[in-house]
Amino acid sequence: MRAVEIAPLAAARASDEYQGLVAYDDASRVLGVALFGMIAGSVGTGALYAIAVAPDASRRGVGTLLVRQVVQTLGAAGARLVVAEWPDDERVAPVASLLAGAEFTEVGRVPDLVRDDVALRLWRATPKGNSSGAHADS
């Protein structure tokens, strides 16, 4: 599902499957948005679906703050594992640094999945208080 499809579901707050966080400045200007949720049918697994930061707010820690809050929120909801999938594409290259800075670890790649010569990068994070590294199927 694409971010444009997830956003209205997150705004409706119909379930814990789709949620959103918004970072604002003191003037109520949106600085960034994160879409995330618990993965339906899984046990203890959440996902970061999308992250966006306003251009004038980039490199100011907004994205890292949002991603860390996503992991914390999902952990509080029972997630033992948080996953993220992102293309290995230079247009979204800053996301890799953002995820790494927010304690995600790259755990795999699927070559040519996005398109020819563009792999899908797989990332995971373990919410604080869950150092077991347990997987959703354990």
Provide keyphrases for this structure.
138 residues, alpha+beta, Aminopeptidase, 6-stranded mixed sheet, 3 helices, 6 strands, globular, disordered C terminus
Walk me through the topology.
Blueprint: H1 3-12, E1 19-24, E2 30-38, E3 45-53, H2 62-76, E4 81-87, H3 93-101, E5 105-115, E6 118-125
Parallel strand pairs: 3-4
Antiparallel strand pairs: 1-2, 2-3, 4-6, 5-6
Word description of this protein:
It is a single chain. The chain has a single domain, classed as 3-Layer(aba) Sandwich (Aminopeptidase). Helices cover 25% and strands 36% of the residues. The protein contains 3 helices and 6 strands; from the N terminus they run H-E-E-E-H-E-H-E-E. The protein has helices at residues 3-12, 62-76, 93-101; strands at residues 19-24, 30-38, 45-53, 81-87, 105-115, 118-125. Strands 1-2-3-4-6-5 form a 6-stranded mixed beta sheet, sandwiched between helices. The longest helix is centred in the middle third of the chain and has 15 residues, at 62-76. It is globular, with a radius of gyration of 15 Å. Residues 131-138 have low confidence and may be disordered.
